[in-house]
Structures are given as C-alpha cells and as structure tokens.
Prior knowledge:
The structure holds two protein chains of two kinds. By secondary structure, chain A is mainly α. Chain A has helices at residues 3-13, 20-39, 42-58, 69-93, 97-102, 116-120, 123-135, 138-148, 154-161, 165-187. Chain A has ten helices and no strands. In chain A, helix 8 packs across helix 9 (154-161). The model of chain A is unreliable at 98-119 (pLDDT under 50). Chain B is mostly helical. Helix content of chain B is 70%, strand content 2%. In chain B, helix 6 (120-146) runs antiparallel to helix 10 (223-242). Chain B starts with 5 loop residues before the first helix and ends with a helix. At the A-B interface, helix 1, helix 2, helix 3, helix 6 and helix 7 of A face helix 1, helix 3, helix 4, helix 6 and helix 7 of B.
Amino acid sequence: METSEQVAIAQVRAGYTEAFRVLVERHSRGLFRLAWRMTGNRQDAEDVVQETFLRAYRQLRRFDGRASFGTWLHRIAANRALDLVRARKLREAHRPRADEEESDPLAGLPGGEPGPERLAMSGEVQRKLAEAMDRLSADERAAFVLRHFEGVSSEDIGRALGVHPVTARQAVFRAVQKLRRSLEPLMGTGI
Amino acid sequence: MSHLSEEQLVWHYYGEAEDAAGADEHLARCPECRQAYAALQRVLNLVDGAPAPGLGESYGREVWERLRPALPKRRRWLPLEFPRGWAVVVATAALVALAFVAGRYSHRQEPIAQGGPPSQQVRDRVLLVAVGDHLERSQMVLAELVNTRPRAVVDISPERQIASDLVGENRLYRQTAAFSGETALASLLEELEPLLLEIARGPSRLTAIELERFRRRVESEGMLFKIRVVGSNVREREKDKEL
C-alpha cells in the first residue's frame, strides 16, 4: 500500500473525513470497471461504486491492512454487485414472457458514443458477448469477472464471495464453458 | 496417451494448474490438446477485448462530489496535504501555546475591543479545543490497538503514523500545561508520552503477544480512563469559555 494511501486511511480513522477523497479518487475507476463487468449496466455500476465507498467509510476501522486497501474495496464491490445481479435475476425469473421480448439485448453495453475499443469489435460480437455474459448465473458471472478481468485467484474469489474455493473454481469453469458455447460459433466467421 | 481435460486447460490458462510444468510438457507434444488450448485462448482473448465504458478524466472527482454529502461531517484535524499541513498545525499550536502562556503571565488588563487582539478567554478556548482534539486522537489510537484481537501479526502502520505526529504535539501541550499550572493535564500528558513514543518508534508489525503486552500496559495504567476523564473536563471548560 502506498504511503499516501496509508496516511489517508489513518487520517480518516482519526476523524478527518476530507482525507477519504484521496482514496475515492484513486479507486473509483477500477471499482467502476469491476462493477460494470459484473452488472453489465452503467447505472447499476455507478450505484455499486457509491455504495462500496459508503460501506468502506463506515467499516474502515475493520480494515486490518492484511490485504491491500484496493483489494478490500474490490471485495466489497464484488459482493454488492453480486447481490444486485442475484436480485435482478430473481426479478427476471418471475417476469412474464411477454416482457422478455421487450428487453434490449444491448442493455448490458454502455450507451453513448462508441469508444475505439468498442469500434474495434464488431456489433455482432459485442451483442453475442453481452448475451453470453447475461446467460451466466450471478455467481458464475461474479467468479468469472474476478478471475478473468481482475486476476483474482480462485482461493481469493472464494474468500471474497464467501464460498469454498472449490465452489469458486466450479463457477469459473462453468462460466468459461458457457461462454465457449456461445462464442465459438463466431470464431469461424473471421471476426 | 490421456489428454488434458477442458478444466485442466482452463486452469492452465489462468495460471492455477495443479501441475503447470506437466501441462506445458503435454501441450508441447500433443497436437490435439494444443489445438483445444488454442481454441480456448481464442475465446477468452475475445472476451478480453470486450469494450469497457469510457470514463472522463474527472470521474473520481465526480464520485467524491456525489459521496461527500452522505458522509458524516466529522472534526477536521489535519489538512489534506500532509507534510505542509502538519507544519501548519505545529506552527499554529506553537503560536496558540505562546499566546496562552503569555496571556497567563501578563497581568495587564486588556480592553475588549472589536478588531483588536483576541481576549484571554478566546486564547484559552483555542488551546482547550486543541488539547481536547489531541486527547481525542490519542484515545482513538490507543483504543484501536487495545481493541485489536489479532490471530497472528498485525500491521499497525496507520496508528504508528498518527502516534508519531501526536508525540511532538503532546510534548508541546505538556510543557504549556506545566508552565501554566495545569497540573492534572500536564501529568496526564507526561504519562501519555511514553506510550505514544512506544507506538511511534516501535515496529510497524506487532505479534499477538506484543500487542497483548501493550494492551495490558495501557489497561494497568488506566490510561484510556484517565484520558476520558481529563478530556471530558477539557471539553466542559471549552464550553464554559464559549459562554
């Protein structure tokens, strides 16, 4: 952990709220990326970031410094995003079929002007990828995002999500299998 | 020859294979597994290329602006820019202490005039606020360590950092209190100093035994209780000066 981060944490713990700004500005982007990949939705990701920092502020005394502050924050965010996706899946499961047809398959992708990375990937692939990610269960998606994008070990994924490492490994593996089934047909299309 | 399973290939890709060297060796001599691994790599590399939403340069600041109203407004005790801010705090404390001592030993009656120098009452109150804050922060640091129950080794770097700041401040307030005949306060600050020094100059990582030893020392000296009593007395006097 960087010294400025340690100092900021010590200052917040001692009652200087303004020092929390250093931590917020340093970790906002990383948390947003994680939350967006887990929820597939910009507004949900924004909410996760906000709630993560609020929770971290309130629980700062519990932060023991064994993991880095960033890892601790990511763990909080992953759990919050997981709760959100689980709740959403539950709502969707109870929704009448007619509603499903109205759902936008691109809803999981960010709106606004496409960035260079987005342009680099064809619309068809983006759509398939978003659909494939949406087909994962909340736990599979969370475990996969943490393993694939965040580089978290399966043991730490288990710790972060409160499950046995073997369960975390199984979730990652199932997610990879599902993604392969959805995306492999595209590989022969020259995309 | 038995091939690598899909699961083995996945964990090899993520660097968590149980036998990475064995898997590498197998891949080197098995074209079928090499092909399966390449197919897996292609899919996962495609996932890697998934676009992430663009965020403006000011994203962190925007998050802070949204978050700020939701955070409790607690007492400010250090400016954000730490080294420069700390110098300001020390300098301010020294000035306040000097003003306090000078006021105590000056028998001249000062007329209370608008726009003139601060009255003795104001100076006393400023010092009381500063000492009250100092005691509160010291109590927080000690309480944090006393209430920690580590299983193995615990990193006390944050507390160490605060304690090293508090040491200089403590010395200043102790001398001022002794000078001005505040014996109870001076005596408490004198007892507090070695504890702060022990934290500030000790190791940044303590074993459970070391922490337990420190906890017993703080408890045997009744330091947290004393700080609470004197601190509450200081806060009461601070309120009186306000009236």
